[in-house]
Amino acid sequence: MTSIAIFASGSGSNAQKIMEYFDNHPSIQVKLVLSNKADAPVLLRAANFMVPTYVFDRKAFYETPQVQEELANYKIDYIVLAGFLWLIPLSLIQSYPDKIINIHPALLPKYGGKGMYGMKVHEAVVQAKDIETGITIHLINEEYDKGEHLFQISCAVEIDDTPERVAEKVHALEHAHFPRIIEDWINKASK
Ligand code: GRF
Questions:
Q1: What is the CA(90)–ligand 1 centre distance, in A?
Q2: What contacts 127, CB < 8 A, 6 or more positions away?
């Protein structure tokens, strides 16, 4: 069995889709959900799937090996970032080389980098009058939002779309594609 851990800071609708997809999967399982927010709805979603959770604060994440120890306890092979907003420390990237995947709610390199997250991305897309946006699934390396792209898919932005409407379209793309891309990536990497 290959074990994955999901890091998420918020609602966790992507985490939910991932846990659904890998529930009873023959070779991949979600073993742990980690969050920097004790009241993040993603923790309840994990509990519904009987997936253990781990909450940490900034100090533990950046100044202690606690999170890495937790990952080691659960023998985690791959890490999925699904709406996790903190920069991953170098030590964690080095422990999981090319084994951390992230989803970004835009067509990188557009609307990436520090401060570009959540509704800020969709507001910028509407502001710029872009005719399309989409999602990027990519590996994490030492540079913010600059790891290798594994997958992109776009959707149209209509002239009267609000940022909220764009967010809905982008979320639908994320839910439809992220679990399958994670599966393909792990299958290829484990060969
Ligand atoms: C998603 O749009 C993802 O692209 C971004 O954060 C959002 C998380 O949404 N990184 P949810 O918590 O999975 O609903």
A1: 23
A2: none
Q: What are phi and psi of 68, to 5 degrees?
A: -60, -40
Number of H-type helices and E-type strands within the chain: 7, 7
What's the gap in Å between 14 CA and the centre of ligand 1?
A: 6
Stretch 59-64: mean pLDDT: 97
Mean pLDDT for all residues in the chain: 95
Catalytic residues: 104
User: What are the Cα distances from residue 28, in Å, to 11, 20, 24, 139?
Assistant: 23, 12, 9, 18
**pLDDT band per the 50, 70, 90 thresholds, residue 146:** low
Section 70-81 average pLDDT: 98
CATH class of 2-190: alpha beta
pLDDT at residue 23, as a whole number? 97
Residues in the ligand 1 pocket, defined by CB under 6 Å = 8, 10-15, 82-83, 103-105, 171, 174
What are the structural domain ranges in the chain? 2-190
The residue among 95, 96, 120 whose CA lies nearest residue 106 is 120
Question: Is-contact 168 111, C-beta < 8 A?
Answer: no
pLDDT number for residue 145: 58
Q: What pLDDT does residue 74 have?
A: 98
